[in-house]
């Protein structure tokens, strides 16, 4: 409960205590604490779910009727969920550990290499872009010592026509700087380990472990921000902490960076801080493109609540924060800075997308220009539909609901929907979808897509399922996400009493304003 909140009504300084739940006064056997506050409006999992009620019997049973909630000095919800998140992150690291195993180099005693023999990275389901792209992106200690820097350094590769072209790091600015900082830290660790006589480790392994550690901190930041965004339902953070998608993809790539920036931005919006909201939206957009979708979502809320000044502040600070990260690189290294956007422009039909399914079914083979135009048109249509639903909603929408619909549409109709991209939806789904079991079922199914996805890269004699199986389950993956979107839309447009109550649960109990 926030400092300064009034204690529940009916609490006296004498020996009688009012429960705040319509119960008669009770006599306290000991003098009352000077702090009489209690989180009387927090949703308690052991009371809200019959399954959790039964499961809680193994650890002492559900929260008692007379329990004072929010006063524990040790096992607060945040600390418990952080502990669960560390468990989930540890499982995620162990899942990738198979790809940082070392093997001796033939004819070179004492030297070791990464053991990716016999397609280990795919058979073991441990593939990570962090490891696979380390050497190719010129992040090794030797490259850095020679002056390599993202967006300035390039190397020559052959395009599809066999012609040599300049190639740069194909990542947005903040992500590229994040990777470079981790590479410098890995280089420093290798020097320190050599200086004090620690066992030598491959540079790629050092880089992966340091990146995993930093990404874990950003995920904890995202968990904290998500829990603080809707304090009434803080325990929903456990869904995020133990998400199967986290266990599979926390360290597949750097997606956690943009997720954490967006989560903090949404927290600041819930606290009525539009300036800081825009700062973190801008930082998120510097790490990935999709956080910019928060702008039309905030525009809907500002129009409904007549807060156009706040919208202008968010937009201005978003541009400012994005410019601080991007403009110096754009000015100094325009070709390297724009490589990530050129890579998107030139990308064709990817295996995970709706367009590949259409191509397989009809033989359609669009040019990249046509594909780009179609993707942008559909994205504009998604934004228009979500804005319309948000403005016409009979229940005041929350930022998380609108963002869930926008990001889901971005993935469904975008040029790429990698397995790790589904992580983007985890904090949004936790806040926006009012059925935790449905959210958990979706996360389990989406995480398991990784298994047939890795099968696409296996040699023919190693394939465990035919490619058609992946395309079938990937179609179902999209249908499941559409179903969750339908649930969110239904929550916004229904008019009966039950839905009014659901809308109340999604708003701050103190003010009635949107909590997310």
Descriptive keywords:
disordered N terminus; two-stranded antiparallel ribbon; 3% strand; mainly alpha; single chain; globular; 516 residues
Structure description:
The protein is mainly alpha-helical. The chain is built from 24 helices and 6 strands. A two-stranded antiparallel sheet has the order 1-2. A two-stranded antiparallel sheet has the order 3-4. Strand 3 and strand 4 form a beta hairpin. Helix 3 runs antiparallel to helix 8 and helix 8 packs parallel to helix 11.
Helix content: 55-70%
Percent of residues in beta strands: under 5%
**What is the chain-wise order of helices and strands?**
EEHHHEEHHHEEHHHHHHHHHHHHHHHHHH
Please, what is the average pLDDT?
A: 86
- Largest pleated sheet: 2 strands, antiparallel
Radius of gyration over all CA atoms, rounded: 25 Å
Tell me the total number of β-strands.
6
Structural class: mainly alpha
Query: Biggest sheet: strands side by side, in what order?
Result: 1-2
> What's the total helix number?
24
Global morphology: globular
The parts where pLDDT drops under 50 for at least 5 residues are: 1-23, 505-516
Give the terminus-to-terminus CA distance. Answer: 17 Å
């Amino acid at each position: 409960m926030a400092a300064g909140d009034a204690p529940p009504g009916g609490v006296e300084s004498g020996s009688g205590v009012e429960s705040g739940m319509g119960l008669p006064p009770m006599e306290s056997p000991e003098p009352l604490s000077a702090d009489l506050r209690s989180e009387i409006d927090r949703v308690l999992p052991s009371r809200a779910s019959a399954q959790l009620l039964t499961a809680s019997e193994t650890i002492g049973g559900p929260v008692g009727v007379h329990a004072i909630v929010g006063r524990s000095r040790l096992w607060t919800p945040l600390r418990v969920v952080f502990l669960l998140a560390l468990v989930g992150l540890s499982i995620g690291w162990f899942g990738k550990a198979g790809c940082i195993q070392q093997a001796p180099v033939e004819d070179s005693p004492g030297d070791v290499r990464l053991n990716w023999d016999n397609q280990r990275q795919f058979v073991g389901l441990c593939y990570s872009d962090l490891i696979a792209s380390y050497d190719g992106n010129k992040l090794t200690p030797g490259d850095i010592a020679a002056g390599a820097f993202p967006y300035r350094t390039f190397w020559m590769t052959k395009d599809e026509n066999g012609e040599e072209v300049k190639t740069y790091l194909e990542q947005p600015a903040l992500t590229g700087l994040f990777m470079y900082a981790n590479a410098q830290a890995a280089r420093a660790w290798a020097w320190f380990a050599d200086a004090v006589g620690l066992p030598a480790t491959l540079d790629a392994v050092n880089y992966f472990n340091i990146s995993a550690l930093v990404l874990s901190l950003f995920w904890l930041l995202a968990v904290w921000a998500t829990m603080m965004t809707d304090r009434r339902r803080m325990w929903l953070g456990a869904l995020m902490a133990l998400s199967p998608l986290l266990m599979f993809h926390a360290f597949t790539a750097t997606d956690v960076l943009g997720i954490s920036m967006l989560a903090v931005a949404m927290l600041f919006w819930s606290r009525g801080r539009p300036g800081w909201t825009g700062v973190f939206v801008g930082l998120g957009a510097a790490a990935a493109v999709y956080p910019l979708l928060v702008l039309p979502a905030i525009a809907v809320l500002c129009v409904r609540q007549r807060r156009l000044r706040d919208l202008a502040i968010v937009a201005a600070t978003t541009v400012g924060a994005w410019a601080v990260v991007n403009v110096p690189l754009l000015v100094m290294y325009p070709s390297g800075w724009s490589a990530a956007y050129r890579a998107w422009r030139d990308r064709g039909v990817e295996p995970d997308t709706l367009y590949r399914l259409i191509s397989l079914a009809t033989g359609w083979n669009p040019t990249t220009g046509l594909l780009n135009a179609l993707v942008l048109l559909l994205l504009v249509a998604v934004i228009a539909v979500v804005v319309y639903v948000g403005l016409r909603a009979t229940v005041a929408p929350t930022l998380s609901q609108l963002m869930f619909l926008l990001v889901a549409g971005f993935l469904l109709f975008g040029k790429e929907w990698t397995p790790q991209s589904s992580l983007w939806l985890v904090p949004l789904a936790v806040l926006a979808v009012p059925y935790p079991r449905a959210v958990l079922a979706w996360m389990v199914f989406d995480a398991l897509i990784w298994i047939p996805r890795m099968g696409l890269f296996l040699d023919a004699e190693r394939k465990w399922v035919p490619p058609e199986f992946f395309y079938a389950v990937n179609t179902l993956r999209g249908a499941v996400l559409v179903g969750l979107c339908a649930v969110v839309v239904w929550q916004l447009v229904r008019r009966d009493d039950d839905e009014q109550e659901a809308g109340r649960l999604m708003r701050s109990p103190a003010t009635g304003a949107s909590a997310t």
